[in-house]
Specification:
Chain lengths: 379, 379, 379, 379
């Protein structure tokens, strides 16, 4: 078969966990789903476990595998480094990739501290390459519709935001300690879940100027992993609530909890404007609830189903209502990344944006600790 | 027909607006629906408009009418004074009734200032009579079920509360000024709507110890009433958001807005415990949403319909799922009041409780104004 | 107090069960809620148990009580006879009332056989009085909105109807036999529940021309009442399904079951037109779900809340979203009845209409028994 | 990289439309998502348009492309032939593949006539190979849970089925004629949509013994394609409704319409048992609604979210509530197909099962045409 005349884009993926495979699927599916302006090549996969790296490379269609991620980064055929390792490795890997002049696609959160995030952003600026961070929920076509409605003024002036990202995977006090329970690994409900919601709030409404917050560790100790009878102390937040003041004048509330029983992926928000209201829940990711101020007695919240009228949907399915899944949001994220690499868009959260998300999360932490309003720009 | 051997209870009702009629219906329906321990007599109805007072008295089944509410209070056959007038009249009427040794059933909010509320509470203590305030939403049988679940420990330790009471009746910037826009009449979204939610939060979870808050007047002026071209300045809040810390350790968020398009009676909350979650929305007042931590993969939020298994429901309908309406919550409120008068219960929000609600609302106002955390007991 | 100058309308109510009290409440509330063109007097209440009749008369505000319903009918001060007794008594009572020239308000179903229904209709025609039958669900203001939408052509030409009325009160095979299990008392799911849905279908879409159906007795025997170990044979249907062809060309399905676990009052339907769809469920009686064909990608089902824009609602509450209850549908039914008595409307299901409902139910029974399509006019 | 020691399975895919790409994605994703017992090779892709075949082959990762599908079938490296062409081509392609001894994976409907379906089934039996038909909705993990509940007796004896598959893509009378409007291409709402629901009903409840039905062509003509002013006559059904009698004794209703405004993929059903009820709607494909008969007053419908407790889900995402999409149902379908090819399962609809679905659809057509009950085995 003839070779494509498009330029090659060599992907190097680090990590073979849930997110590693999600990236692999997303690269494959972006290639099959969209007419990309590059010849996307799954060039190399790295995992510290050489056998696993090789096994996954074969199963996922990568040409090469590495036990040493530095080899992957230094391979000249790798143009883009995708990082899906535990949080504390994001910084060293991204710094190395940027140093080597590679574009970087890093899972969220960007870093385990604001200082790290600052350093990574500086390195990205210096390298002058494209970076993207995996706040995948904002690539949902129906979220794109929400953003269009907000930006076009369809809801009037935006005046309120109520957001909550709750799950229950730590709801059982016997759920064991894990690295997510360590501050040093960017653990806690705020970092793990809340940061997604903060990124979404910024994506839809822009800058947040000041915050006041309340954080709590409900279960101060948890069993060690692996059925050990030992108890480990927990220092990170189980739940965090905040008041938000947006630069555009909107006010609102924020919540994140990993103790809220019944919720599995409840990234939800409601945005109020002077002419309408919209709400969304990631647990029904193909629906947007919209109210437009209208004729009394005939008005009501409308339930809009995802469909091909929203950018990005049609490539997966020509018919509305057929439902995208979580993994397809990653595919859309990869498409946006490729488009950015080809200069077709500047959309999508890069290291600069991810730094702002970290700054905001840090401001919330300070506000909760010091029990006072905090101006985000002061941290 | 033989006369009842039960003692008479003479009702004197002041006010003939929406709430006046709601009370009249509630008294009638309580009599027909429940086996009350008194012979409930609709004795007198007062309205400053004598003709209206007489017309309504006849239509609503009252024996007498008055243009002067003080005559109603001084009538010895009146045992209970029900007050449904505009907010600023609650205090003088209740004070007069208490002075006369009458039981008082006052619409919410109790008063237009914390000082007034304190004076009314003192007078009630001194009079030693039964008082009740119209926080009717807590008489919903399914709210009773929610409270039982919380008190019995079915949800475990309560750790979170997210509540919002939003409507949209002031959502249009052209909605005219009314007395509800005056602080001196206990206007604003916090007083008008939020106080219901604060009363509900206290009913379900008990004392709130400290608050931080943010209030905003979005539309700083509105047209005067009656189509006048004149604009009036607005000083009360259009929306107020707060963080709450409960005495039982729970943390959470609070919101009230009368600008939230699409909502008509959205008194809603979600309460999280260490073993389950429940949520409620007054716009579906016959439903409770409940999640009990259970077997993974078979668990899910349950939608419980109101029915005769919940105290108070069966008197209206022997079959579940047939739906109570807003007015029937008033009927249940009247039943609780009668039971209190007969010493059968001490349940129900009295002036002492309503004072606590006012104190809490005031703390939220102070916190918003001074942009700091406020201990409720300090106000 | 001055007497009203309006003409008196003396009510005579027979029966003191759930429906008896529902009627009493409805008469009282209609008087208080609406400006009726008559002076509605609760004149007499009859129950075979004299003591109960007297007790209820006092509690419900009736002036007189009777153990003998014939005395009630013959009382010249009684203008309207309301019948809430078990089904097999509807016919003799209504016939006597009509014979006496009284208006009749009879609970559904009209009769226990088609022959009875025919006789009652003939008597009503001969008497020339107003009759009404308690298909109360159609008095819901939001159902009125639905009907307006259909009649105004807002949904285009109506082409489909899917309706189901299911409950689960006989779902447990150990639920004992009752008179509702006897054909001779108009028992079975079709008569008890389905007739409400047939009345609703006719109210909204008009005549049904032909039907095909399938009926089943799932639990062929049930325990006798009162904990008796004896089993009784059951001959009536537990569930009935049908195909419907409407005179207006619409096609659809019908279901009624008293075995459908989880449903408590699931009178539900969806009506499809060439320009839109609407659906309703009595378990959320204050909501109408509406879809209007519109711009792709921005359209979706709308959830309309009951409110004062719909005729009849405002009298109960000036604010939308505050929810009417089941009992208030009876109040609206009484208002329509009074208006009919005063010649202000001819709306509302009378004996002629109730006869058509019985004819339709009979056609469904014949179709099920003979396993063939049946033209409704042939029965 | 070392080669896999697993046996190769060469895929030959015919068709490059929406379904062709869906198959390509599904094969790729099955390889990456599951540990398959074969080395799945995307060997060849065929499309009558040679350039398109080549373009798609490259984009989708196939090694070869063909303009002539017969070449694809005769290629010895092709073990499995996947057919995604228009319906009338299913038969000749499948017959050729079976003749060549290849396994066949054919999109639904199997054929454009019952005779064709019979011939294809006979050929499959003679060839002795694995066949599968694309009734993908039944591969949804939460449908698997539903089936387990039914088979385990958790719902008791199954007594009712209400199902409807409605969409609105032909709802506008100006939606033009297409091949889906031709009987000869297995057009009409019953064949296009209804057959999915019939397959689902059989998957969950087994054989259907007899049917009665009503079919209607609402819009008897439609514009020709491409903006032509010409009108074309339409003979296929716009909506079909039926009564169903299952071999297990359950009774119920069936509906399919492509005119039902507001619905985009409303494959929905409710199944009633003597101990519970479950319902499902493909427009919320990650949810199952379940009611288990329980303690009065605490019971209610439960909303179960898809999650890793259900077979097949975890491979896509380790966390519940993250939502699978439509395309992932195809991936699960491919996994079941591969497992069948490896003798690991006999599950999944094969040509024998698809023939039964065609027989059932034919029985419904006969019943509608002759307006009588039809025993399915008689057609």
């Amino acid at each position: 078969m003839r070779q494509s005349s498009l330029p090659d884009l060599g992907i190097g993926l680090i990590g073979t966990g849930f997110m590693g495979r999600a990236h692999a699927l997303a690269f494959q599916n972006a290639r099959t789903t969209f007419d990309l302006p590059v010849n996307l090549k799954l060039h190399a996969l790295a995992d510290a476990d050489a056998a696993r790296a090789e096994h996954c490379a074969r199963a996922w269609g990568f040409d090469h595998s590495h036990a040493d991620w530095q080899q992957l980064i230094s391979d000249p055929a790798v143009n883009l480094v995708a990082i899906t390792t535990p949080n504390h490795l994001h910084c060293p890997m991204a710094m190395a990739a940027l140093e080597a002049g590679k574009a970087v696609y890093c899972e969220k959160p960007l870093a385990v501290s604001l200082d790290q995030a600052r350093a990574m952003h500086s390195a990205a600026v210096k390298a002058g390459v494209v970076t993207r961070v995996g706040y995948n929920y904002q690539h949902n076509p129906i979220i794109g519709l929400a953003r269009n409605m907000i930006e076009s003024g369809e809801l009037g002036q935006i005046i309120s935001f109520q957001g909550e990202f709750s799950e229950d995977f730590m709801g059982d006090p016997q759920s064991p300690w894990s690295w997510r329970c360590e501050q040093a690994h960017a653990g806690g409900a705020l970092a793990d879940l809340g940061s997604h919601l903060l990124a979404m709030a910024r994506y839809l409404l822009g800058d947040i100027e000041s915050v006041c917050a309340d954080s709590q560790t409900v279960h101060a100790q948890r069993p060690a992993e692996g059925g050990s009878p030992q108890q480990r102390k927990i220092a990170v937040d189980d739940q965090t609530y905040a008041l938000l003041r947006f630069a555009n004048g909107a006010r609102g509330t924020f919540g994140s909890s990993w103790l809220k029983h019944g919720y599995k992926n409840h990234l939800s928000f409601e945005i109020g404007g002077t002419r309408g209201t919209l709400s969304f829940d990631q647990e029904r990711l193909n629906e947007l609830r919209l109210y437009r101020a209208g004729a009394p007695g005939r008005d009501g919240f409308q339930q809009i189903l995802a469909g091909p009228a929203q950018p990005g949907y049609a490539a997966f399915c020509p018919a509305p209502g057929h439902q995208l899944g979580y993994n397809e949001l990653k595919t859309l994220e990869v498409r946006a990344l490729i488009q950015a690499l080809c200069g077709q868009t500047s959309e999508g959260p890069d290291f600069a944006e991810a730094l702002e998300v970290e700054r905001l999360a840090t401001a919330i932490r300070v506000a909760a600790k010091e029990m006072r309003w905090v101006t985000v720009s002061e941290v």
